[in-house]
Design a protein that fits this description.
The complex is a heterodimer of chains A (436) and B (368). Chain A is α/β, with parallel strands linked by helices and 436 residues long. Chain A has a 7-stranded mixed beta sheet with strand order 2-1-3-4-8-7-9, sandwiched between helices. A 6-stranded mixed beta sheet of chain A has the order 11-12-10-13-14-15. With 368 residues, chain B is of the alpha/beta class. Helix content of chain B is 37%, strand content 23%. Chain B has 13 helices and 18 strands. In chain B, the strands form 4 sheets. In chain B, strands 2, 3, 4, 5, 6, 7, 8 and 16 form an 8-stranded mixed beta sheet that branches. Classes of the chains: A alpha/beta (436), B alpha/beta (368). At the A-B interface, strand 2, helix 2, helix 4, helix 9 and helix 10 of A face strand 1, helix 1, helix 3, helix 4 and helix 7 of B. Strand 2 of chain A pairs parallel with strand 12 of chain B.
């Protein structure tokens, strides 16, 4: 049996370009077509990701796959395509405008070294929207938005991506005869590759600046920029490195199931507020109490409040224990409050005042005089047999609370501590709290 | 089996993985970061890819690109990040890209309260991109709902080829909750319908959803965010433009019955309906139970599919009642949708924007 194979060298379609006479876009696209033909890749496996502007129209003149998205974001779409399907050849076509609005993406794609090829159609201004200045407009140049001459320094695209890790970097003009070879080289490069191709915008930049082909080269020289292949080094692309770094068959982390090993005779839900300082294990101690309650057949929730900072400011945990199933929500006035620090006290001061005589507050001697309608139980960590570190204060007071109020067996709290990290320290804190 | 002590974020990640999510991109932001971190940890272990973008724009952009290359993608963010998603939400609408977007709401505007709860994005997710075309938004009110509604979001994204939002919030995403391991309902997520060759888009009949043409499946595919014909070429042909835009709307609006999801607790002869969503749904249920214990005749409705508004279910729940009470953590953003349907009934808000949750007692007070 013989199989008819369709020739894979047709990339440009029959549609004529829509570009202005003398515009460099068509010339660069012809050279891209030549490069693709020389590589003989299946056109459906080539995705041209086009940005916005005149260059953004480019994908329509190719029989390859195409992705035409939003201005400046072409590199992000290309990154997603390449990561999901590494076997695809992904080529970004963007104008100099895209290097401004999408500058962050350009730098980070180079740094990340995703295996895409970026072709910058650099005509030194915005040609589709009326000849405004772009990031690459040379200083002094006249555009519709720089009538007195551009006051900004032009972006060195190649230098920027080069110092940030791009593996293949080329600068030239649309007139370069070897451009098809350089484009093919860039496409073959496994990592991030960029070609900065300078060209003439005959609609705006050329008439506004009496700019010629010779001026293109002269401007590159005046700015002290180099041309040709500026960087070419083999580095594994991000997708390959990512796949090598992980075992794709490792399987997901299994849920942690908590067994019921004890019983509690708690008859109604109780809300416990633990008010302390960030960085003193308030949340992890509160979590241990919830886990212990679950071990005792109860249902628990824990809602935390904290500032955006990590180890400073308050840390509040609201634990609700219930004999029946509960969902996240407001617990109202708590039945129990633990005040561990000034930060915590500051946050719960008004809550403490609204607590009645049927409720209880556990605190340390420093806050013995706090204002509340609740019964206050003062626990002095200094009275313990061993010194209690500040970071264990929450667990010490919670253990004392569990023991004194009989919410559930203390043994369940010990089991929860033994099942987690820092079990030795935590078990010691629980024993200290129970003894106090 | 035992029970878990689990937060809503973890349930969302599990729902996504069970739904077949293979790609995640996100940018660190409180209170959505734990979803990013869990995805970075878990996705590679099942052969997927998770990546931290340089910003939110890049993150959602990568998700859209990956989807066209065959992935099932999700991203997660909060207030300032969902604002940056805006333009790409439009691209996903226009290009008909299945995509799940988790919005863990925090108090806004701007940086607002990063660690503070809010339900202020309920209208933003619906109208947060230029053009005014419909999207789908789901809102869990519990951890188990966070799980299965995430999976449902993936299912609806494939069914309608559009962005589907999962609207949660700081408290629901971070509050640890005890969940019976057997309480997670099994989820079924439809397989992606794909096509290859020929036109990648279809506008007739206007409510029909064409199969997704993915890159690299043997035929060239054209994808575009510009107004396009069925071939994916830019057009200004009046008939084609009209057909495309009606299609983008009709494919969702014409199939509201497939999207409507509510948890209705209706009482015969009820004079009041309490309607809520998200974390406030817990307060709705608690308030309805408390009011009934006090002898009041009251119905409760927790809306799971916020957009399109489940008008059939809401209208049914309102039948016979004189008053609708709508608690939410904003100044009445979803209430306006209820007022639109209320037909002269009194619609009362219970609103809180100080960063604390609504106490069920505050709702019961209004019911008295």
């Amino acid at each position: 049996m013989t199989v008819d194979v369709t020739p894979l060298h047709r990339y440009r379609n029959e549609t004529p370009y829509p570009f202005c006479p003398g515009c460099g876009h068509g010339s660069i696209l012809d050279k891209l077509g030549e490069a693709l033909a020389s590589l003989e890749i299946d056109p459906s496996g080539v995705v041209i990701v086009s940005d916005i502007g005149c260059a953004g129209l480019s994908d329509q003149y190719f029989d390859t796959s195409a992705f035409h998205g939003l201005h400046g974001r072409s590199i992000t779409y290309a990154t997603g395509i390449k990561l999901a399907r590494p076997e695809l050849t992904v080529i970004v076509i963007m104008g100099d405008g895209g290097t401004g609005i999408g500058g962050a993406h350009l730098i980070n794609a180079a740094r990340r070294n995703v295996g895409i090829t970026v072709l910058v159609f650099n005509n030194l201004n915005f040609g589709m929207t009326g000849g405004q200045h772009s990031t690459t407009t040379p200083d002094g140049a006249v555009t519709s938005t720089t009538p007195g001459g551009n006051l900004e320094h032009p972006l060195d695209i190649c230098g920027t991506v080069g110092v940030n890790g791009a593996g293949y970097v080329y600068r030239g003009t649309s007139f370069d005869a070897d451009l098809p070879d350089r484009i093919a080289e860039a496409i073959r490069h496994p990592g991030f590759a960029l070609l900065d191709v300078w060209e003439l915008c005959t609609a705006y930049f050329v008439p506004a600046n009496k700019f010629t082909r010779r001026d293109l080269d002269a401007t590159i020289d005046r700015l002290g920029l180099s041309t040709g292949v500026l960087s070419s080094r083999e580095v594994a692309d991000y997708g390959t490195a990512y796949r090598a770094a992980f075992d794709a068959t490792a399987g997901r982390t299994a849920p942690v199931l908590i067994p019921t090993t004890h019983a509690s005779d708690l008859a109604a839900p109780v809300a416990i507020v633990v008010a302390g300082s960030a960085g003193t294990k308030v949340r992890s101690a509160a979590r241990m109490v919830g886990e212990a309650a679950i071990r005792s057949g109860l249902w628990a929730t824990q809602r935390d409040d904290y500032p955006v900072t990590v180890k400073t400011g308050h840390s509040l945990s609201e634990v609700v224990l219930s004999p029946s199933s509960i969902t996240p929500g407001s617990a109202g006035v708590p039945g129990v409050a633990l005040v561990l620090s000034e930060d915590g006290l500051h946050k719960v001061r008004s809550t403490l005042q609204s607590m009645g005589p049927e409720t209880v507050v556990f605190t340390i001697p420093a806050f013995a005089g706090l204002e509340t309608g609740a019964r206050v139980e003062v626990i002095d960590p200094a009275a313990a047999d061993t010194r209690i570190p500040k970071a264990q204060l929450a667990l010490v007071l919670l253990a004392a609370m569990v023991s004194r109020l009989g919410l559930f067996p203390v043994e369940a709290l010990r089991e929860a501590a033994a099942a987690g990290a820092f079990s030795v320290e935590n078990l010691a804190a629980i024993d200290a709290g129970v003894a106090l | 089996m035992g029970r878990e002590y689990i937060d809503g974020s973890t349930a969302i990640v599990r729902g996504a993985l069970d739904a077949g999510c293979t790609f995640f991109a996100g940018y660190p932001i409180t209170p959505a970061s734990s979803i990013l971190m869990a995805m970075m940890r878990e996705l590679p272990k099942v052969g997927g890819i998770a990546i931290q973008g340089e910003d939110e724009i890049a993150s959602i952009g990568m998700c859209i690109g990956a989807t066209l290359a065959g992935a099932r993608a999700m991203t997660a963010t909060s207030g300032p990040g969902i604002s940056l998603y805006s333009e790409n939400i439009g691209l996903a609408v226009m290009g008909e890209v299945p995509l799940v977007i988790v919005d863990v709401q925090r108090l806004g505007p701007a940086t607002g309260g990063a660690t503070t709860v809010s339900q202020g994005d309920v209208q933003f997710v619906r109208w947060g991109t230029a053009g005014g075309f419909p999207v789908i938004a789901l809102a869990p009110s519990t951890v188990t709902e966070s799980y299965w509604l995430t999976a449902k979001a993936f299912d609806l994204a494939e069914r309608f080829r559009c962005p589907v939002f999962l609207l949660t919030d700081k408290e629901l995403a971070t509050t640890l909750t005890t969940v019976d391991a057997a309480a997670y309902p099994p989820v079924e997520v439809r397989a992606r319908e794909t096509g290859a060759g020929g036109a990648p888009y279809r506008y007739e009949p206007s409510d029909d959803v064409p199969p997704l043409h993915e890159f690299g499946r043997g035929a060239a595919v054209r994808f575009t965010g510009s107004t396009h014909d069925t071939g994916g070429y830019i057009t200004k042909n009046l008939q084609t433009v009209d057909a495309l835009n009606r299609h983008l709307s009709d494919k969702i609006e014409g199939h509201r019955d497939e999207i409507e999801l509510v948890d209705a607790d209706l009482e015969e002869g009820a004079v009041t309906l309490v309607l809520g969503f998200g974390v406030t749904g817990g307060a709705v249920r608690a308030a309805v139970a408390a009011a009934r214990r006090g002898g009041a005749q009251v119905s409760g409705l927790v809306v799971h599919s916020l957009w399109p508004v489940p008008e059939t279910a809401i209208t049914r729940a309102m039948a016979g009642v004189r008053r609708v009470v709508v608690p939410e953590l904003n100044l009445g953003l979803y209430r306006r949708e209820i007022e639109r349907l209320a037909g002269g009934r009194e619609v009362v808000g219970v609103n809180r924007i100080d960063g604390e949750l609504i106490d069920p007692a505050a709702i019961v007070e209004v019911l008295a």
